[in-house]
From TrEMBL:
Source species of the chain: Smallanthus sonchifolius
Domain of life, source organism: Eukaryota
Protein name: Uncharacterized protein
Length: 375
């Protein structure tokens, strides 16, 4: 049997297993005992318009060594998800569902009936974890635009991987930076073009055209209000780098032909996927009262130690502390003793803050599922 990798054929028997063995690490950790991890669930199919051309996959000029490195990297990301499942098993569950979200969810479902197009905003560092499991059922066949915000916090390889992932499904994606306004004007044009048929139908019925209605939805603190403010070029919606700032629905007009609905972040009532919940906590996309800082920072240290494009050198360069990648809390304790007189909460907050502000580099915590990329 032969395997084809980017224009190069290999006989399956000629690829020695040790090529990959040096990359696999056992999920041993201070946080949890090992057990069988459940298979990853398939992502929902969504209809999205706009975005960039995929370029990460299918490079016919890639040589055989790069092809094998890319194949290895896919398995590293799969291994990381398995390890993360084990690490979170004995931690305090991350749960956060303030009262205003339940109210907003009810109101948003009613407002969705009035929308011509929905703009779903996700965190580019964790696109899967910031995808609401009920979003597809709420929107039905309504037209959608997917925005991966905070593109400045991930690498070009990460962006290309996600563009390729959605492109293989016939889906395009818009990358944006709500803080600096990158991608926002393109988003405004897309919203109008996607819903152009609305006024065509109105004219056919003898009705006057009206502004296109676009709702902006997503998890807390993914940058929804910042995107609207950048589109409008003025501060119309309250925005701050923490979850829960927007607490009510608000319609704002963009020119004469587009109306935008800003909405509070919505999350599931119960976070059944604790691997995703931990990533929400790491990226500050969920209320800080829902998690223990030391636990979350410890998991982040272990993830950084095993990410294919990161490794222990990032932590060493920043903190001058060694880590073996398996005992994140030990690293936090060492940092606390070195800088904070033994205060582990302050040490954990420093590590999380450094990651959230990009001081550790452009690092994504997710890549598209291996089985989806290989399809």
């Amino acid at each position: 049997m032969a395997i084809h990798l980017s224009g190069v054929f290999f006989n399956k028997a000629s690829i020695s297993p040790p090529v990959f063995q040096h990359r696999r690490r056992p999920p041993l950790t201070v946080f949890a005992t090992a057990s069988a991890a459940p298979p990853p669930s398939s992502p929902p199919t969504i209809q999205i318009v706009g975005g960039k051309t995929a370029s990460w996959y299918g490079n016919g000029n890639m040589d055989s060594s790069n092809a094998i490195d890319s194949f290895e990297e896919e398995y590293d990301w799969a291994d990381l998800e398995t390890d993360l499942y084990h690490w979170t098993k004995t931690l305090r569950p991350v749960q956060w569902y303030p009262g205003h979200i339940a109210k907003t969810e009810r109101e948003l479902k009613e407002q969705l009936k009035l929308m011509d197009v929905v703009i779903e905003v996700r965190d580019a560092r964790i696109p899967m974890s910031t995808s609401h499991p009920q979003m597809d059922s709420w929107l039905g066949n309504r037209k959608r635009i997917l925005v991966l915000n905070r593109e400045d916090m991930i690498s070009s390889a990460d962006k290309n991987a996600w563009a390729d992932y959605y492109g293989r499904q016939g889906i395009k994606v818009v990358f944006s930076n709500g803080q600096l306004g990158m991608g926002t004007m393109k988003l405004g044009r897309l919203a109008k073009s996607v819903a152009a048929g609305v006024n065509m139908k109105r004219r056919a019925r003898g009705l006057l055209p009206r502004p296109v209605r676009a709702g902006i939805v997503g998890y807390p603190n993914v940058g929804k209000s910042s995107l609207i403010n950048r589109l409008l070029k003025r501060r119309m919606c309250p925005a701050a780098p923490r979850p829960g700032v927007t607490r009510g629905l608000k319609w704002v007009r963009f020119g004469n032909d587009l109306e935008l609905l800003d909405s509070p972040g919505i999350i599931p009532m119960r976070m059944s996927d604790q691997s995703a919940a931990i990533k929400l906590a790491i990226c500050d996309d969920i209320g800080e009262r829902s998690y223990d800082f030391t636990d979350v920072a410890g998991v982040l240290v272990q993830m950084l130690s095993k990410l294919p494009k990161a490794n222990n050198s990032i932590l060493w360069e920043r903190y001058k502390i060694d880590t073996d990648g398996r005992f994140g809390k030990t690293f936090i304790h060492k940092l606390a003793v070195q800088l904070f007189n033994g205060d582990e909460h302050q040490a954990a907050f420093r590590v999380l803050s450094d990651f959230r502000k990009g001081r550790l580099g452009m690092i994504a915590l997710e890549r598209p599922p291996v089985h989806s990329r290989a399809a």
